[in-house]
Amino acid sequence: MQFKLYTDVHEFYNDTYDVLMRHEAQNLIPLGNIIIGHEGKDKTDWRDPVNWLMATISDAKGVQLTAIMTPPHNITLYATDNIVNPDAINCLIDGLKDREIPGVITEKTLAEYFAKEYTLRKGITFKTTMSQRIYELTAVNPDIQKVGIVRLLNEKDIHFFPYWAEAFYAAGSYGKTEMSIPQNADPYLYRIASKKLYILEDNGIPVSMAGYTRELQTAIGVAFVYTPPYERRKGYATSIVAQISQLALDKGFTKCVLYTDLANPTSNSIYQKIGYMPICDSLQLKFE
């Protein structure tokens, strides 16, 4: 097994893109990241590849394990064809011996195996921060009832969007309601300028939001789904996710991909009713 550490994102892209595309939807995060780095159009915050950790483990048959970390985020791994090779994982851990890794996010079996071996070597522990399920949609259920009107988020929404965004981030821990109070408009204006977030209005009143994340060759990520507590159980989240999923398909994407928190039965039920089908489970693990 050969460990290769990359400093050139373009070389890493060339060596790993086709491998990651074998499971495009599952690899939404690493694929989206290497596309961002390869194109070099946006180096805001974590997006500058000069700070990334990029590595592969290969044998005579080719790349067996791909690893990318965009600090401060967790390392993301992909075992080629989802075949977990213990030798490749041990080789990666050897190569990462001088690196600080905060945690891992990847397909469940690989995440658990890597975390156990890594923490054993380091003499540390790990805990699960989120158990996730990755879903894929290729057609929206035509029977879904659509309410309200979807429009792009715009700068006129700056009076409420920062608060919705912080509430969404807080809800990353299911059931959590404590949120940060926005202090600086710039991060939210950046999100608005991306033109990837949408608002659902009912009778002219914003009631829910959702948007796109990474755009891949045939797949696009759907995320940032948030409805204020006082507007829930009215079908708004279902409606906006169904509508922007259909918009993505109409633009030419063949599939929409989203991650759910398995602790949240409501969201998992909603997405399946829309037409999302589970493709695999994923874990976010934190090293302590």
UniProtKB/TrEMBL annotation:
The protein's name in its UniProt record: Acetyltransferase
Lineage of the organism: Bacteria, Bacillati, Bacillota, Bacilli, Bacillales
Matching Pfam families: Acetyltransf_1
Recorded coiled-coil stretches: none
Species of origin: Paenibacillus cineris
Domain annotation N-acetyltransferase: ranges: 148-288
PROSITE patterns: GNAT
Source taxon at top rank: Bacteria
